[in-house]
Amino acid sequence: MTPPAETAATAYTGHVDYVHGYSAHETRRLGDQADTLAELLHADTAYPAGSRVLEAGCGVGAQTVHLIGASPGAHFTAVDISATSLARARARVTAEFPAARVTWHQADLFELPFKDAEFDHVFVCFVLEHLVAPGEALMALRRVLRPGGTLTVIEGDHGSAFFHPDSAYAHAAIDCQVRLQHTAGGNALVGRQLHPLLSAAGYERIAVRPRPVYADRSHPALVDGFTRNTFIAMIESVREDAQSAGLMSPADWDRGLADLHRTADDDGTFHYTFFKAVAVNPRPS
Amino acid sequence: MTPPAETAATAYTGHVDYVHGYSAHETRRLGDQADTLAELLHADTAYPAGSRVLEAGCGVGAQTVHLIGASPGAHFTAVDISATSLARARARVTAEFPAARVTWHQADLFELPFKDAEFDHVFVCFVLEHLVAPGEALMALRRVLRPGGTLTVIEGDHGSAFFHPDSAYAHAAIDCQVRLQHTAGGNALVGRQLHPLLSAAGYERIAVRPRPVYADRSHPALVDGFTRNTFIAMIESVREDAQSAGLMSPADWDRGLADLHRTADDDGTFHYTFFKAVAVNPRPS
Where are the beta strands (DSSP E) in chain B? Predict the structure, then answer.
């Protein structure tokens, strides 16, 4: 669920080590995930021609291409803290949309190199979950958003996962990921908190909507693209860290993962909830 | 989530004691719940004029009035195992829709007094969760459904509940309800199982869709009508049974309920998922 935001935790306030690591495999996983989920998450996001849009934390560009595809006339500014991710995002966007108007900046969310109110809209997806101080990030983004402009936030929530057959071992394996992300300073349960976070950060007209992903055998592409290759792959990616931290015995872990795979069988089902919020930066009263 | 289906468990195969009991308060709670959720659950269900529709397990008529309101020209047959519930349903429907064409039958789902293929459509809502043998019930319903006719099923899933602030005590209190319902022979997690149950019962063209309920301070009617007066009220209603069964200490229970109420505060959020399935009785090949 979690696009890269490569960092040394010590160098940037409020930022944390990316829990999933960096690799070509990881980049591919994030690309698959974005394509499977693009319709669900992005279909209702489109910005007017000429509007100035900031994507904060663009990672490898997995969401950026969908943003640009839906809003060909908008002027995008894409920011990420990782030069490596930014280069990948730029290569991908340039390949898919050679004519797109995108400006690229390597920068910290908390020290954005932009003037106050420089953007009409801000978009942030799978970023807050990695931050120690998501509320402060939302305030930093509000500074560069013009009054009356919108912020769009998309986040997952790993506590929303449930499935058939149910399994305490599978839930425990998911909980390892949640605990590792917490230890790293992030929050894998941030989806459910978007409304209070946005409210505390001073936004108004906050509309949060759940975006459920439900996969059964009648949706084989979703079983493969989401249950197996996105969600289970993400849990599998923390196996070593979970073992090193002593969070779960190898035998219990293996059973948990086997039980997760079981939910992708023909008589299994899998359910997960993303949250999408749109909020407005208030005009001065 | 659970409309009454009054019964003596010994008298009817596959049927169980209604976990929430019977009272005027309970009837009111179920009415409130149905009104709050009617749009979410029923908006896309309408039957053609003249079609013969069976509602199996109508309870006190909480869903019946919405069915009839959306399909004024259909011929309804409403069945419940409880004479008391049936009388309440009949009174309610007669008061709201004096001209509605409804036939009322007190009967067991597993011994329906109807010919094979007597109905064009069957509707069942918040019933499977109370049955020891939901799969057999779906087969019994398929017998009275004409080939090519549709079955619509709506069920909740208490394992889908998550909220902010998160609380292990609140989850444990919810789990008491799940365990009591399991002990009574029911299944509070049946929503996630609709696809495999329908498939095993011989239905085809099965389409299961999650219907999430998400409440935050921007939806005060939902916070009140769903989080407080439906979900938390339902959990509170099993307090005595949970204590008698020794499932949770009184202090832990009270903390769990306080934590649940906390999610209905201004900075709380609450999320729950219903499932709605539509499936077809195959034509002989």
Answer: 52-56, 75-80, 102-106, 119-125, 145-155, 162-164, 204-215, 269-280
- pLDDT of B111-129, one tens digit each? 999 999 999 999 999 999 9
> Contact at 8 Å (CB) between A15 and A136?
no
- Contact status of B208 with chain A (Cβ, < 8 Å): yes
Task: Give the Cα separation of A27 and A88 in Å (integer).
Answer: 9
Q: Say which residue, A188 or B13, is predicted with more confidence.
A: A188
The secondary structure of chain B in percent helix, strand, coil, rounded to multiples of 5, reads 45, 20, 35
Tokens of A72: 């060909």
Is residue B241 within 8 A of residue B180, CB to CB? The reply is yes
pLDDT in tens, A116-126: 999 999 999 99
Mean pLDDT of chain A: 90
Lowest mean pLDDT among A42-51, B2-11, B184-193: B2-11
- Contacts of residue B129 in chain A, CB cutoff 8 Å? none
Cα–Cα distance between A271 and A80 in angstroms, integer? Answer: 30
Q: Taking the CB of residue A110, how many other CB atoms lie within 10 A of it?
A: 17
Whether B220 and chain A come into contact, CB under 8 Å, resolves to: no
Residue type, A268: G
Measure in Å the smallest separation between the Cα of B21 and chain A Cα atoms.
27
Q: Which residues of A touch B209 (CB under 8 A)?
A: 214
B13 near B110, Cβ under 8 Å? yes
Minimum CA–CA partner of A196 in chain B:
B267
How would you label A262-282 residue by residue, b for 16+ Cβ within 10 Å and e otherwise? Answer: ebbeebbbbbbbbbbbbbbbe
Q: Is a pLDDT exceeding 50 seen at residue A208?
A: yes
How confident is the model over A235-255, as a mean pLDDT?
97
Please state, in angstroms and rounded to a whole number, the distance separating the CA atoms of residues B55 and B75: 11
CB < 8 Å & 24+ apart, contacts of A222-226: A222/A36, A223/A264, A223/A270, A224/A264, A225/A32, A225/A33, A225/A35, A225/A36, A226/A33, A226/A36, A226/A37, A226/A270, A226/A272
3-state secondary structure at position B277:
strand
State how beta strands B269-280 and B162-164 pair: antiparallel
Provide the ipTM: 0.87
**DSSP result, B115-159:** -TT-EEEEEEES-GGG-S-HHHHHHHHHHTEEEEEEEEEEE--GG
pLDDT band for position B258 (cuts 50, 70, 90):
very high
Does residue A168 sit at the B interface (CB-CB below 8 Å)? no
**Dist CA A246 CA A201 (whole Å):** 37
| Lookup: tokens for B162 | 């998550």
> Running DSSP on this structure, what letter comes out for residue B280?
E
Predicted pLDDT of residue A134 = 98
| pLDDT over 70, % of chain A | 87
Residue range A16-45, pLDDT digits in tens: 344 555 555 555 555 555 566 888 899 899
